[in-house]
Amino acid sequence: MSKMIAPSLLSANFLNLEKDIEMLNNSQADWLHLDVMDGVFVPNISFGQPVIKHIKKIANKPLDVHLMIVNPDRYFEDFKKCGADIITVHYEACTHLHRSLTAIKNLGIKAGVVLNPHTPVSVLEDIIYLCDVVLLMSVNPGFGGQKFIENTYKKTKQLKEMIVRNNPSTLIEIDGGVNTTNSKQLFDCGADVLVAGNAVFSADNPMKMIMDLKK
Ligand code: DX5
Ligand code: ZN
Fold it and tell me: Which CATH number fits the domain that encloses residue 117?
């Protein structure tokens, strides 16, 4: 089982992103997690294509773009052009999820579905075979630094069972409130990728924190 860490740039220093990205380039981080928020699907507004385009120029790891926006299909091609290697869309924002995932995969990049904390894993039964990644939100999306929702352990195990049963190579990603008090248990439940914003960027030694989260 893979143990990957995807630091979320939402908690990075926006006045000096280059410094933080260089740190991540030299760290054991596996993906860079980029949170795109539109102020409609979630209460907050973050950043979009112009920022991601510049991050791509210096990042040496895959860009994992988490779209917290309504009608995300309008922008798949744009985000791919800006350097997205993985695009994840919310189940709650896609009326035609099969169409959305197919459109992302047709661009030659990885496609994933995100579930809000209240959305059961069972809704994925007939779409799991198309998912390169399933991201379980362990907080309500919109902000960094929130408290981890404990019910995520149960959902992670249920999702792992569904993946094993259907035999796809789907990765399980967890996002929100991840820190060293829950990382080990999440990996034990079947998670492959942990997103961490606050835990990494508020640490005295972010590179060491990334290593500690993998232990
Ligand atoms: C929340 C975002 C997360 C967030 C995680 O809406 O999707 O990626 O940045 O931040 P932490 O790790 O601080 O909860
Ligand atoms: Zn995210």
Answer: 3.20.20.70
